[in-house]
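Thread: "does anyone have the structure for this chain?"

Original post by V.I.:
We have the sequence but no experimental structure in hand. Need at least a predicted one for the grant figures.
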Amino acid sequence: MADILAWLEENGSAENRAGMARFGINTGKAFGVGNTALRPLARSLGRNHERARTLWQTGWREARLLALFTDVPGLLGLDQARSMVEEFDSWEIVDHAADLFVDAGHLDDLVPELAADEREFARRTAFAMIAWGAVHQKTRDDADFLRYLPLIEAHSRDPRNFVRKAVNWALRQIGKRSMDLHGPALELAEKLGSSGDKTARWIGRDAFRELSDPERIGKIARKRP
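Reply from O.Q.:
Generated one for you, tokens below.
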């Protein structure tokens, strides 16, 4: 563990930290190592659940990202995932953790629970999980994602930046998953786009713009059922 932290310290920089901060990444405890360097390091380390837990507990941004990149999804329990959510303090950590949580099989349990959570990063996690699942859980029935559209509508008026962007992301990814989902997602986007609420209107219009694009529709139609 000490050698990993030493490598991160040696390869970080104040310039990188400043750049991350400009993109809204929390750099309060960061070495300043970009993901282009972290990803190869993660591949060289390989997956190890206990090491990932230890890396997470350090609190360092880069160590936590390495934990998320190298954990073993099948060993990440629901209680551990909930415990991690308690410490979320950056959209970047949220989005990579959401990927891991879905791969660990916690989509159905965590999405409704975290969507109901009033904390900004917890709620973002729910919709980031929907977005990841819509793209990567290819063998799931489309109906599993259709049922998330009412949840998207219910939280489309949350004006907080990291929530509204994730709600929009989830809606767009559901609509791009298949032609069966495209129609209902497009319909919801159009409905939200005419809302009297500013946030819902932005979510709807942005999603409608992408989902109504003929080239995008063609790509969706060409996907294998």
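V.I.: this helps a lot. The chain has 15 helices and no strands.
O.Q.: and The mean pLDDT is 97.
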